[in-house]
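Sharing a chain and its predicted structure for anyone who wants a worked example. Both blocks are below, sequence first, tokens second.
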Amino acid sequence: MGTLNYKRKVKNLAETGNLTIRQEDATLRFTILGDIDHHGAKDLRESMDSALFFYRPSVCVINLSRVEFMDSSGLGLILGRRTGAEEIGAELILEDPSESVKKILGLAGIERLIKIRYGGNDEKIRE
């Protein structure tokens, strides 16, 4: 019996001071670096939306492990990307929020709306 030889396609698409965008097969992965506040949310939103609507992934992951501060602009950023993902039929997953971001997400009840994955392990997804 033959073996299946599957190579994962990974492509780094963009890297700015506060955002990296990477395509992994049908997944678009955003890693946000630094704080998400009123000043930075607009640029993040524009970059993320451009990639989301251009690449049209089936899964969109936002990694929050390197975000230490997030205000209501960050919540708006996340909820807006949820809407964008839904418009193209993609699933949105938040990944590895830092402790401070985890508290804000919990207070806002985000886990009732968006899957949150810890440790990059599908078994640890909260719905």
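Comments welcome. Residues 121-127 have pLDDT under 50 and may be disordered.
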